[in-house]
Amino acid sequence: MNTTKSKQLFEKAKRYIPGGVNSPVRAFKSVGGEPIFIERGSGSKFYDADGNEYIDYIGSWGPHLFGHNPPFIKKALAEAFEKGTSFGAPTELEVRMAQLITELVPSVEMVRMVNSGTEATMSAIRTARGYTNKEKFIKFEGCYHGHADYFLIKAGSGALTLGVPTSPGVTKGNAADTLLADFNDIESVKKLVYANKNNVAAIIIEPIAGNMGVVKADESFLVELRNLCNEENIVLIFDEVMTGFRVAAGGAQEILGIKPDLTTFGKIIGGGLPVGAFGGKREIMEMVAPAGPVYQAGTLSGNPLAMAAGYAALSYIKEHPEIYVQLEKSSIYLENGFKENLKAIGKNYAMNRVGSMMSMFFIEEPVNDFKSAVKSDTALYGKYFHEMLKRGIYLAPAQFEALFISTAHTKEDLDKTINAHKESLVAVLK
Ligand code: PMP
């Protein structure tokens, strides 16, 4: 595989951009080697600066439910572009977008658009604090909620893979208000709640975690979490930045049957443009400025291009519920193919999947929380990643992430991937 141009670009990039990338995991630090630079994408594939083709399983880290550049999103963007890129004044499309979100996710009665997942989670926490008049919040080890200071306490995703669970620049004061519980362990949550009686504003969780690899919360655990929040007047926030509109049109909360008080969105909601949103119970959302006193704002929030792309994505989802059947079918096919490969080579690696999110861990025992996830042999994952890349399969360049299947992945793509998976495992295990 010739990657001369990517190498040249990376050398130059490092001179002008910290680490040569605009978001850390892209740099291949945890898998070794150097990043490839992408030139264009189409459907299930993208192409690098040297012209190499890859079947893409990160889909820009989740947004591309329909693959790259689907015609209906392109069309919506082109139409919006003709009218102007941003006005800083309200538009009808924002109203339609908000209404559509409330239709798809019934726990959301009101919603505020923002520009990223981080803004969504940050604003949800502030709103919960304002609503309850309490200061601390609980998060779970291995869950990632973006890079606001008080989330970077044993965070998942890039912060986990790079081995910097906390970051310089985060103050002790910030860290003191973040309480850390164990995923899937209600006793660890209760302990914190009772030790901080009447001072826990919110509990935030990825109900299906994707940032320690894919790890689903037990339904009984979530039911107990819901009850605890009711009893203690704590705002339950589901971070559905990754799972929203991916695992079902109504997100993880639809398939788990649990209603959070607030939900955060990102990724798919922007149709590939930088968008996030947070929403939930009317009574809580009416705390947000200018309806209420909790300040939250954004120069480009709800801008017409982002709304056009996001609205096109969500409308497509609403009008085509069958896509989730198709995604499930493709995802089962890939999972079964991987499982057969593992059987053939005598390995019983943990494989977690919910809908079109999937992770294989290099550990032969179940993975159901952070502590079991980090037992995975990440060095082996790095080798496996490069073997797959050589065979034209682009996976997340880090173990503690999800593989995303899109509606654009064809049977031919999946077969090629299953074949590459087998060859790659044989190569790394020999
Ligand atoms: N929450 C979750 C669950 C995420 O997966 C992410 C990003 N991967 C974020 C929040 C932060 O979103 P963003 O990168 O858009 O700020």
Q: Would you give an account of this structure?
A:
- It holds the Pfam family Aminotran_3.
- GO terms for molecular function: glutamate-1-semialdehyde 2,1-aminomutase activity; pyridoxal phosphate binding; transaminase activity.
- It catalyses: (S)-4-amino-5-oxopentanoate = 5-aminolevulinate.
- It is a single chain.
- With 430 residues, the chain is α/β, with parallel strands linked by helices.
- It folds into 2 domains: 174 residues, Aspartate Aminotransferase, domain 1, CATH 3.90.1150; 249 residues, Aspartate Aminotransferase, domain 2, CATH 3.40.640.10.
- 40% of the residues lie in helices and 15% in strands.
- The chain has a 7-stranded mixed β-sheet with strand order 4-12-11-10-7-5-6, with helices on both faces. Strands 1-2-3-15 form a 4-stranded mixed β-sheet. A 3-stranded antiparallel β-sheet has the order 13-14-16, with helices on one face.
- Helix 2 packs antiparallel against helix 11 and helix 7 runs parallel beside helix 8.
- The longest helix has 23 residues.
- It binds 4'-deoxy-4'-aminopyridoxal-5'-phosphate.
- The site of 4'-deoxy-4'-aminopyridoxal-5'-phosphate has 17 residues, from helix 4.
- The site of 4'-deoxy-4'-aminopyridoxal-5'-phosphate (PMP) has 17 residues, from helix 4.
